[in-house]
Design a protein that fits this description.
about 120 residues, alpha+beta, Endonuclease, Chain A, four-stranded mixed beta sheet, 4 strands, about 15% strand, globular
Length: about 120
Amino acid sequence: MGKIRSKGTAPERQVAEILRGLRYRFVMHDIKLPGTPDFVLVHRKLVIFVHGCFWHCHNCRRGRSQPATRADFWDRKRAMNVQRDRRATRALRQLGYSVLILWECRLWDTDAIKSRIRAQLQK
């Protein structure tokens, strides 16, 4: 588990490539904002989080999997991740940002990701 990174992951690189293809300017991992969003489209007041399904308890096969060893530890850790995500989302919305969460398991459909980003920006 020590080799798992929080920045520069393959899903993040994929979303960065999509955003560049759409010609949007963004900042990655802005520590000034609550939750340190993965992507911030500053001029459009949009933040994007790219969540790993296991770590953030998504309702997919990977998100529902349970480690066999130290199950209590992992349950608490993942539950704290979900709580932290909710707090950060709430704080960002209070600052006037729109929040878009992209799940790792759904990044294979780049057209759907592009349309979700465009739809979020049109709100």
